[in-house]
Please model this.
Amino acid sequence: MTNAQDPAFQTLRLERRDRILTIIFDRPEQMNAVNSELHEEMARVFRYAAADPRSDIIVLTGSGRAFSAGGDIPWMQKGIDDPALFRTIIREAKEIVFSMLDCEKPIIAKVNGAAAGLGANVALLCDVIFMASDAIIVDPHVKVGLVAADGGALIWPQLIGFARAKHYLMTGEPVRAPEALAMGLVNFVVERAQLDAAVDAYVDKLAAGATLAIRWTKTTINIALKQLAHSMMDAGLAYEALSNSTADHQEGVTGFVERRPARFTGK
Model:
């Protein structure tokens, strides 16, 4: 159920059950693709959830048939046309990553459908990841001529190793749920019809535990991830900003809009 005390978001919906707060990407007609409003709200919501005195566990999921389809293509075009907008995107991207890593409360991803681009990386930055058995996860930044720097270059190698991460991030190929589980990219894969029940049972187990000990265990584990993020996020996002101004990125966006393969030239 929703709560009147929660802030009003345009593209996110908050629901509560006991001391569990669920954050829902709420653009189902667009497969929860990230536009400027959703990106800005994502940069705020984890700070809010971290400070929320009425919850101990956070669940992150999508409405409709997708978790999140990644960046909205018209929003990408606006970022090309207006470099000042892309500077805002870069600042918000850092806030999203660090607010998730800073949050002491466990964040459980319920990947109910396709998770792509930033949607994939936000899912992988969660502490425990449940994935529907028919879902895919993919970071296709390079397929639109962008550097995979908004979390992908940080978290994929930590989960599956450098060799596999380089393959998936440099090709933008999708990973299906069974393969994601086998390689350690996600924690659990369950049939879609059982996904809600499986996540509920897991978060109830955490909620019945020693919540302070659980929080501080996560915090301790995340020290290394935060150190790594501090060492590489600025450089990675700077490279992503450079790639935003390339002809290849414009071609990637144009090809997507025209529903044809992009013809990259390395420029």
Residues 115 and 137 are 5 Å apart (CA to CA). The chain has a mean pLDDT of 96. DSSP finds ten helices and ten strands in the chain.
